[in-house]
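Quick start: read one record
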Amino acid sequence: MTYALVTDLARDAIFITALLAAPLLLVALTIGLLVSIFQTVTQIQEQTLSFVPKLIGVGATFLVALPWMLQLLVEYTARLFRAMPGMVG
């Protein structure tokens, strides 16, 4: 196993992880920003107000994006298993 192969595997794993996390993080960031603007405008300073909308938004995004996420993971895993014989030799 060469350094280049290990580097490629690590790079691909980090890229897949970023792709999987991006939609959920973007939804949480957007909802948090909107709730913060709402709190600033209405002067409601309740700390727990942003938790429920974020939970609902991230949960809904997860359910919508789940088929795409699973497809991405299955393709990556299949590609990794197909490449394993070449890694050993």
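The first helix runs from residue 3 to 42.
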